[in-house]
Structures are given as C-alpha cells and as structure tokens.
C-alpha cells in the first residue's frame, strides 16, 4: 500500500491527515452541537497538499479538485487550562479555567479529483 496523506486547513491550523486515522479539531464555530453527532459525514475542501507515493500535488493556496472525506467519532474536550491572576500588593488571587471543545473525526477518503469522490458516496454493487 502506498503512503498517501494530505495537509488540510481547518480551524486556523494546518493538519497532516492520513486515511484510517483519527484527529482532534476545534469545533466549528457556526455549527449547532446537535448537527455533529457521531457518524456524521464531513467533507473538507481546503486541501493544501496531497502526497501519494512520490507524486505531490501542491495548491496555491488550495487544490481546486481535492477533497478529504471523513466521519465524526464523538465530541471531546481538551485538558483544562488554568489561568491565575495574582495581585501581590492587594493579597488577592483569582483562578480561572477553560476547556476547548474538540471534535474527534476519522479520515475515510482522500481524493485529488472529485470524480473519485462520487464513487465514495454511491456504493457500486
């Protein structure tokens, strides 16, 4: 099996993805939490690079016909980040905590042209 991977742009970050592996990305700001339930199919069109063996397709800034398809496994949280404000002269302390919402998804399919992705949606019998 040839080593195939893609670099996508999601949540303001660039992420190297491979088929069959799962990744944590930031929850999309405009989506309702009920929309992204487990096994919801997602498509990402902001693909910066696709590498298949020794063949590399590089976009400027994105590849026009590339697509990365996957499905949501479950929502999750990052570990809690703790911030402290300490005022030494007033002898006061304030402790705040924050957990980032994430979505864990698995990549099912990477395609460099959309004709291949149609066969992913319609199973041939």
UniProtKB/TrEMBL annotation:
Family note: Belongs to the bacterial ribosomal protein bL21 family.
GO BP: any one term: translation
UniProt subcellular location: Plastid, Chloroplast
Entry-linked InterPro entries: bL21-like, bL21-like_sf, Ribosomal_bL21
Main localization (coarse): plastid
Name of the protein this chain belongs to: Large ribosomal subunit protein bL21c
Keywords: Chloroplast, Plastid, Ribonucleoprotein, Ribosomal protein, RNA-binding, rRNA-binding
GO cellular component: chloroplast; ribonucleoprotein complex; ribosome
Record's function text: This protein binds to 23S rRNA.
Assembly and oligomerization: Part of the 50S ribosomal subunit.
SUPFAM superfamilies: L21p-like (SSF141091)
One example GO MF annotation: rRNA binding
């Amino acid at each position: 099996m040839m080593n195939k991977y893609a670099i996508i742009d999601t949540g303001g970050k660039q992420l190297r993805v491979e088929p069959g592996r799962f990744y944590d990305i930031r929850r999309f700001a405009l989506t309702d939490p009920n929309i992204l339930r487990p096994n919801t199919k997602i498509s990402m069109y902001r693909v910066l690079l696709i590498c298949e063996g020794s063949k590399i397709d590089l976009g400027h800034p994105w590849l026009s016909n590339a697509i990365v398809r996957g499905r949501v496994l479950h929502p999750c949280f990052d570990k809690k980040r703790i911030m402290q404000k300490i005022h030494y002269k007033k002898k006061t302390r304030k402790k705040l905590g924050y957990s980032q919402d994430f979505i864990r998804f698995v990549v099912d399919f990477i395609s460099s042209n959309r004709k291949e992705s149609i066969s992913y949606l319609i199973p041939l019998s």
